[in-house]
Amino acid sequence: MAANPSDSSWKTLSTTYAGRAFNFCVVDAESCEGLWSFYPEGCPDPLILEAADPMPTASEVYERLQSMVTGLQESTGLPLTLADAPENEEDIIGIMNKLHEYLPHAIKRIAMKKIGLRQFEQSSPQLPKEWTELMADLEEMGFTSQEENLSAVQAANGNLKQAVKILVRASRP
To answer: What is the separation of C-alpha 7 from the centre of its chain, rounded to a whole number of angstroms?
Structure first.
């Protein structure tokens, strides 16, 4: 059974976007038509939505930015350069996140669309082996919050006794 917006048993919705009219009908989720097909007005075939491209990595965004700066320099003669990216991806993420924070909102939106600039997630920093052992010791002592334990160990600069004091003080009402 094909989707038929003129069928009175189906609820229809209409909207326009970018100058094109779209009609939608609510269909039974268990039906073949319930697989989210969109039929533009006057078109018997569904609108096929392309899969989104994966978001670029921080390194890819840096390369795109470097390419844009090079193109700007070549086309205008402005003495602009952008150094090669650092080797470490975490360093590039830090640079891109600082750039993202610095740019005005309107430019951020353009940079997102053009090169994929956004706030990147940084992986948690690697802890020294001794601190990993301290975290396990704190957990054995009954301090179960990894986040609070990490904060205490960092504040105590790896001193177990100081970390325990910090956690006990924080747990008091």
So the answer is: 42
Cα separation, 129 vs 97, in Å, equals 28
- For residue 68, give both structure tokens: 């844009």
What angle do the packed helices 58-76 and 89-102 form, to 10 degrees?
60
pTM of the model: 0.48
| Digit-coded pLDDT (tens) for 162-172 | 999 999 988 88
| β-pairing verdict for 11-17 and 39-40 | unpaired
| pLDDT band for position 2 (cuts 50, 70, 90) | very low
* Nearest Cα residue to 46 out of 59, 29, 57, 32: 32
Task: Name residue 67's amino acid.
Answer: S
In three-state form (DSSP H/G/I as H, E/B as E, the rest C), the secondary structure along the chain is CCCCCCCCCCEEEEEEECCEEEEEEECCCCCHHHCCCEEECCCCCCECCCCCCCCCCHHHHHHHHHHHHHHHHHHHCCCCCCCCCCCCHHHHHHHHHHHHHHCCHHHHHHHHHHHCCCCCCCCCCCCCHHHHHHHHHHHHCCCCCHHHHHHHHHHCCCCHHHHHHHHHHHHCC
